[in-house]
Write a structure and sequence with these properties.
By secondary structure, the protein is of the alpha+beta class. It contains eleven helices and 14 strands. A seven-stranded antiparallel β-sheet has the order 2-6-7-1-5-4-3. The protein has a five-stranded mixed β-sheet with strand order 10-9-8-11-12. The chain has a two-stranded antiparallel sheet with strand order 13-14. The longest helix is centred in the middle third of the chain and has 35 residues.
């Protein structure tokens, strides 16, 4: 479990932290260069070489794995003394970070690791601590010293600090630490229990629940867009690389940071509000990337549905609420009362079924359909309530029909 805190290093510590980030960036890029050169040397055909250039590395040269590059760090420190100023385990985790990216690339088949430009490397990790580094109002970082910290919430009893990640935000003017804590216990997944609701996400209303409640969508980016445009225009008029240009870029970065914080705060409060209303929550498994490619891409990015679903799942796990995603196809085109198909365009905001006469808001009908599919899945899997072998059949038809007749009427009432 991770806790994020704000830290306030002094001027000398900030300079040292920025130097550490640049050193880690150099180590990352050098290790990536070795990796790419070894791969490029294996691309040459057996009977011919390229006319322009070719990477010549001996055939018996082993692959630059994590352990091989990690063992070369002590040799590099003798040639480059400035590497010794950085904690040794911080450099090792930098190499580990590269190879984690490389292994993820091999699994998904795309997204080859890239070189980090100046200012793009924004964090490093202290992987372990012998003692608790938190001491009231300060945190003790190896080779950095005691740094003031805003400990807005204490570490729970019994937990130990496993690692600390130092983050640089707003172009190196704001610093945070992500403290990873652990406790040797197993937390079981929350079962399906209590009151169940389905939620539908949209742009007219950010969230509509199956019980009829809804949450309006705050326009975080659009409300600040005019001011952000003014700050960006001021930065564009400055000479690139000058001190005034750097000050203008910090103002722009601070504005983006403020927008992101407001959005995240809204998502967390909304997720906690949902957990207060129900103990079982079903949501649509949206194709977030597909939504951002349409004409409403800016609005979808401003709403950040993907971030909300991730935070909602984490909040539900923390509070013991069951959370599941269901197939979103056709939820707004199906009547939740009689399951008839009701085709309607995006401009139609009211659901009116000609088969049964059920009329409600479009998003409310979709949320009810999300709840229907979610309960249908858990009943089919035998997860509903405290079931026994005799209580829930293999098909779950009896329980599903019982819910169709009584559950939907209770939700509407």
């Amino acid at each position: 479990m991770n806790y994020t805190y704000r830290i306030y290093p002094n001027a000398a510590q900030q300079i040292e932290l920025l130097e550490w980030l640049e050193t880690c960036r150099g180590v990352y890029n050098y290790a990536l260069r070795e990796l790419k050169d070894w791969i490029a040397s294996r691309k040459c055909s057996v009977d011919r070489c390229s006319l322009e250039k070719e990477y010549i590395i001996p055939a018996d040269e082993p692959f630059p794995s994590y352990h091989r590059q990690q063992n070369n760090l002590p040799k590099a420190k003798k040639q480059l003394p400035h590497l010794g100023q950085v904690h040794s385990q911080v450099l090792q985790t930098t190499i580990r970070r590269l190879h984690d990216t490389w292994e993820a690339f091999q699994k998904r088949g795309h997204g080859f690791p890239r070189f980090k430009k100046f200012g793009q490397f924004k964090s490093f990790v202290f992987p372990q601590f012998k003692q608790n580094p938190l001491n009231g109002f300060t945190i003790k970082l190896p080779k950095i010293g005691d740094v003031p910290i805003k400990l807005h919430r204490p570490i729970p009893d019994g937990f130990k600090v496993k690692q600390v990640r130092v983050l640089s935000r707003v172009r190196g003017t704001q610093w945070y630490v992500v403290v990873t804590i652990e406790l040797d216990i197993s937390v079981p997944d929350a079962p399906v229990h209590g009151r169940a609701i389905g939620i539908d996400l949209g742009l007219e209303r950010f969230l509509t629940a199956s019980d009829g409640s809804f949450q309006e969508r705050p326009k975080f980016f659009k409300s600040m867009q005019s001011k952000l445009k003014l700050l960006q225009r001021r930065g564009a008029r400055k000479q690139k690389g000058s001190k005034n240009w750097e000050k203008a870029q910090r103002e722009v970065a601070r504005m983006h940071h403020r927008i992101a914080n407001r959005r995240r705060d809204f998502h967390l409060k909304t997720a906690h509000k949902l957990c207060d209303q129900a103990q079982t929550i079903f949501a649509e498994d949206l194709n977030v990337k597909g939504l951002t490619r349409g004409m409403l891409g800016k609005d979808c990015l401003d709403a950040a549905f993907g971030q909300f679903l991730s935070l909602a799942e984490w909040v539900c796990w923390k509070r013991g609420v069951y959370f599941a995603k269901i197939n979103p196809n056709g939820t707004s085109q199906t009547c939740p009362n009689c399951l008839a198909t009701v085709s309607k365009g995006l401009e139609v905001r009211e659901h009116h079924c000609l088969e049964c006469g059920y009329r409600t808001h479009r998003d409310h009908a979709a949320a009810e359909m999300v709840l229907y599919r979610g309960l249908e899945n858990v009943v089919a899997q035998g997860l509903w309530g405290k079931e026994t072998a005799c209580q829930v059949g293999l098909s779950g038809v009896y329980d599903l029909d019982k819910w169709r007749g009584a559950g939907m009427l209770a939700l509407r009432g």
